[in-house]
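Q: What residues go here?
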């Protein structure tokens, strides 16, 4: 996506930190920012068109994209800045197949979950606390 800026990859605002191991060596540890960036960079189709999307809840942000070369390929990134909650993604095609799900939170990183069914143009799913959940068509 065009909104991911180069300054997000600088060392003073890094995507990873380093921590000492018990043997005295160092290991690189991805930050929460790394996982958010990975959702957008790895799961958003290219080339893509941004779709109009909005949330009716404070602390829940939604972005949506459709692949330019495949009208059925859609991706929805849902960021939850607060406590865990249930969410409903509405306005989807009525006959859309189940959506693949990838989640990153304080407890899991880029984890694939069971697909979420779409019923009557709606997908209901859980948003873990302080997480990003990406839902995508399987096309």
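A:
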């Amino acid at each position: 996506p065009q909104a991911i800026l180069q300054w997000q990859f600088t060392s003073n605002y890094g995507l990873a930190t380093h921590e000492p191991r018990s043997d005295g060596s160092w290991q690189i540890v991805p930050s929460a920012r790394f996982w958010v960036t990975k959702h957008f960079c790895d799961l958003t189709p290219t080339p893509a068109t941004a779709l109009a999307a909005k949330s009716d809840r404070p602390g829940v942000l939604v972005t949506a994209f459709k692949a330019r070369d495949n009208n059925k390929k859609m991706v929805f990134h849902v960021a939850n800045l607060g406590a865990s909650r249930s969410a409903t993604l509405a306005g989807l095609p009525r006959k859309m197949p189940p959506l693949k799900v990838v989640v990153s939170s304080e407890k899991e990183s880029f984890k694939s979950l069971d697909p979420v069914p779409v019923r009557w143009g709606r997908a209901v799913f859980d948003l873990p606390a302080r997480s990003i959940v990406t839902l995508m068509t399987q096309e």
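A: Context that may help when evaluating the design: Residues 7 and 13 are 7 Å apart (CA to CA). The mean pLDDT is 90.
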